Structures
1.
Amino acid sequence: MSRLYPNQPIAAASIAVFRAGRVLLARRTSGPAKALYSLPGGVVEIGETLAEAALRELREETGVIARIAGFNTHVEIIERDEEARVRHHFIIASFAGLWIAGDGETGPEASEIVWVDPFAFGTLPVTANLTDLLPRAYALVQRAGAAK
């Protein structure tokens, strides 16, 4: 299925990984969020659960390994062109996670990796829903970390 002008919504997953009170953000090299900082994530592959997809994408994009703390929320990205045709349509299952290993490495999908304060990341250009996602994700990891 084409990601550009798809004939149906595309399932994707992302993860907010926390380490020592900071969250991992990756600067996108392509797609509708190109050049913006966002949570690592991508399209779900056939036979993969949403959580598996989030962890795989995290590892592939950044080299970081984490465990799922919980499901955060879903995000819908619908982008239309000048003729009102749907150019992109993603439904993203967003998870919260706790860091296990890896500092983060750049690569083909992430030109920069940063660990930032989830409540004060300054002037970084971020994806539209990020500021809404992070407080809830932070609360999830706090509960999961306390339950360890």
2.
Amino acid sequence: MFKTVQEVRYTNDQKDTLYVLFTDNDDVVQEMYIEPNGQEHKELEALGITDEKIVDATGMFKQQTQRELADIARLAAANVYKDEIEKLKKERDDLKLANVSSKNMIDNNIAASMRQHALSKDLDRENKNKIVAVNKYVSDNITQEKIEVAIPNIIDVIKTLNNNKDAIDLVKGESKIKAKTLVEALYKTLK
């Protein structure tokens, strides 16, 4: 059945199902989910694949998944904040260079508020598009096992940012919702 085995790992913490990626006797690459201690598992043991190797492979898979999700989160955050930070720096520099009267300053503040409002709307639109794109990417490319690894990481990120004012304000956007924590802002925004 197994000509060569490329990957064997547990699919969950209960260790009740093994994922096997292998080449069969007809040189066809296949995936299979098997139960530990079944006939297929005995065939794997005969090939020298021990429980210790399976546990190590499972750990490496989880670490790789965590790194991939962390990279995705870092890239998403960098892209979201990069443009906003550059625009704010430009506005700051423009204000430093401008030596304007009070009337001109008021006009500039109104224009800046209008730009900020437009920027916020653009960010909202971009974020919604990015969420759709990330959801599509997740649906198309991330397996259930990776999702099971990712959820605790996402929870940790939310816990870490729960009292971060910038994160709360980003979720609230221009809405009038009142929220003291990120979880509360997410709940009110998504309901």
3.
Amino acid sequence: MRITTELERLAAPVSTRDHFQGQSNAPLTLVEYGDFECPYCGTAHRVVKAIQEKLGERLRFVYRHFPLTQRHPNAENAAQAAEAAGARGDFWPMHDLLFEHQEALADEDLAEYAASLGLDGAEILAEMELGTYATRVREDFSGGIKSGVNGAPTFFINDVLYNGESDLQSMLVALAEAEHRE
């Protein structure tokens, strides 16, 4: 039996501060540390959607920001735009829009996406300029580092680092194994 080290466990437990879909008492919790500009995260987004559809109420999905700004210059602002939308009750619609339009994440695009959700794009850009949500994004990133995250996407299943492939079948197998362990 493989023993999980502290660095392979989620350092910051899931809490009410997190953005999540599903029931808080679901038997499975899938946490993703992601980057809106990362193409691998874009692929993982589609996989997570399929997992959610397949597992339904048995899964709680949590998204945390892990912008890799050295490689993805728009990732930080995209994360802040998602947080700004979240402050207005629209985190998940913005989350989905950002992943669906990864090739267009400049500030003017972010304002357009906000407007398409009925939000004030100029106000969201102003908040990004002020760094209103920068601390929140940094907290997610820091929690990822403390949990051993060094790239995106990185997943945790029921607080344990998932080291497998990010394809649908592999993740479903790992989730089923985790559910049977509980």
